[in-house]
Write a structure and sequence with these properties.
The protein is of the alpha/beta class. The chain has two domains: 212 residues, 3-Layer(aba) Sandwich (Rossmann fold); 101 residues, Alpha-Beta Plaits (2-Layer Sandwich). The strands form three sheets. It has a six-stranded mixed β-sheet with strand order 5-6-7-3-8-9, sandwiched between helices. Strands 11-12-10-13 form a four-stranded antiparallel β-sheet. Helix 2 crosses helix 3.
Length: 343
C-alpha cells in the first residue's frame, strides 16, 4: 500500500532524512517513532507530497500521493490539526472538504458524529480546544473512508476516553484491511495500538519489525522454590543468570533451553517465560539515550561461579513472595467509540 525507497532530504547541507526505506501492507497499524528532530514529520510530508525529496521515492497505491486525481480517496491524512480556518464552523470546514472529494455534504455530519463533534458542528473552529481540533482533523481524514490513514500525533490533546476511542477506531480500520501509519510520543498508547514499529533516529531507520519481536529481550525469566539450586544449575550449564524483579532470575538463553536444564538438574520451577522489554526501554536503546540500559545483545559466557545473594542456598521463610493472579460501514464508527462529548 505504501512503499518508500531511498527517501532522502537535505536542508542547507544537513541531511535530515537519510536514504530510508520501508513498505506497509494492508491490515497493519505501524507506529513511526523517533525523538524530536529525528526526521518523522519530514518523512510524512515527503510521503504526502508536501515536501520534495532530495532523492528517493514514496508511492501510495503504486504512484506518488499527489499524482492521484483525488488523493483523499487513497489515504486520509492528518499532519497538522491547527491548519484550519478559525472563522469557519467545523461543519462548514468538513462540507468544503467533502465537496472537494466529490462527496455529499451529509458525509460531514456523519464523520463529526463518529468523532464526537456533533454538538460542536456549528461552533467556530477558533473556539475549539486542541483536542477538538484533533478530532476535527481525524474526521476529515475519515471523510472518504480511505484504505490508508497517515496520522501525525493523532492523540495529541485528547483526554483518556478520546485516546481509547482513537485506538479502537484505528484497530477497527486495520481489522477490515486498512493500513495505518501514525507517529506518536505516547509510548504506552503505541504499545496497545500498533502491531509494527518503525523507529527513526538521526534521519535513519534504526528498527523495523513486529512489536513483539522487537521487544523480546533474548532472556528467560525463571523462578522456583530454591533459587540457589536453580541459579547453580544454569551456571553449571555455562549460562549467565542475573537477579531480576519480583524474585526472578534472568537467564540469557531461550525458554526451552532453560526448561531442559532445570528438568535435567531435578530443580523445581514455579514460573518460566520470555522477558519482554518495555517499549520505553526499547525506544531509548534504539535512539541512543545515554542513560538507557545496556543492549540486549548476547554476552560472552562466563565460567560457572557459585551462586551469590540474593539467591541463598535455601529459601528463607516466606520465599517466594506471592504472585498476583494473573469494517465498520463508511459512516459508522466502531461500537463504543467517541462517547463523552467534547474535551
Amino acid at each position: 500500500m505504501l512503499s518508500v525507497q531511498g527517501l532522502t532530504k537535505v536542508y542547507d547541507g544537513r541531511t535530515v532524512v537519510d536514504h530510508i526505506g520501508f513498505e506497509l501492507q494492508p491490515g497493519t497499524v505501524t507506529a513511526f517513532l523517533g525523538p524530536n528532530g529525528a526526521g518523522k514529520s519530514t518523512t510524512l510530508r515527503m510521503v504526502c507530497g508536501l515536501t520534495h525529496p532530495t532523492q528517493g521515492t514514496a508511492t501510495v497505491g503504486g504512484r506518488p500521493y499527489a499524482a492521484w486525481p483525488n488523493p483523499g480517496h487513497v489515504a486520509g491524512v492528518l499532519l497538522d490539526a491547527t491548519a484550519v480556518h478559525p472563522g469557519r464552523s467545523g461543519r462548514l470546514h468538513l462540507r468544503l472538504a467533502a465537496q472537494l472529494a466529490g462527496l455529499p455534504a451529509a458525509r460531514a455530519d456523519q464523520v463529526m458524529e463518529m468523532v464526537g463533534l456533533a454538538d460542536a458542528a456549528t461552533r467556530k473552529i477558533g473556539k475549539y480546544s486542541l483536542g477538538m481540533r484533533q478530532r476535527l482533523g481525524l474526521a476529515q481524514s475519515l471523510l472518504t473512508d480511505p484504505p490508508m490513514l497517515i496520522l501525525d500525533e493523532p492523540i495529541n490533546g485528547l483526554d483518556p476516553e478520546g485516546i481509547r476511542s482513537v485506538r479502537n477506531l484505528l484497530r477497527a480500520h486495520s481489522a477490515k484491511g486498512g493500513t495505518v501509519l501514525l507517529s506518536s510520543h505516547v509510548l504506552a498508547e503505541v504499545d496497545q495500538t500498533a502491531d509494527r514499529l518503525l523507529v527513526i533516529g538521526q534521519g535513519k531507520i534504526v528498527a523495523d519489525g513486529p512489536l513483539q519481536q522487537l521487544t523480546a529481550s533474548n532472556r528467560t525469566l525463571v523462578r522456583g522454590p530454591d533459587m540457589g539450586r536453580l541459579v547453580m544449575a544454569m551456571q553449571q550449564a555455562g549460562l549467565t543468570a542475573e537477579p531480576a524483579a519480583d524474585g526472578y532470575a534472568a537467564v540469557r538463553a531461550p525458554v526451552p533451553q532453560v526448561s531442559d536444564i532445570a528438568f535435567r538438574s531435578g530443580v523445581q520451577v514455579y514460573d518460566l517465560r520470555e522477558e519482554q522489554l518495555s517499549l520505553e526501554e526499547l525506544f531509548f536503546r534504539l535512539t541512543g539515550d545515554p542513560h538507557a540500559a545496556q543492549s540486549n545483545q548476547p554476552q560472552q559466557q562466563q565460567p560457572p561461579q557459585p551462586p551469590q545473594p540474593p539467591y541463598p542456598p535455601q529459601p528463607p521463610q516466606g520465599y517466594p513472595p506471592q504472585m498476583n493472579g494473573n469494517g465498520y460501514p463508511p459512516a459508522q464508527a466502531p461500537a463504543g467509540t467517541w462517547g463523552g462529548g467534547q474535551r
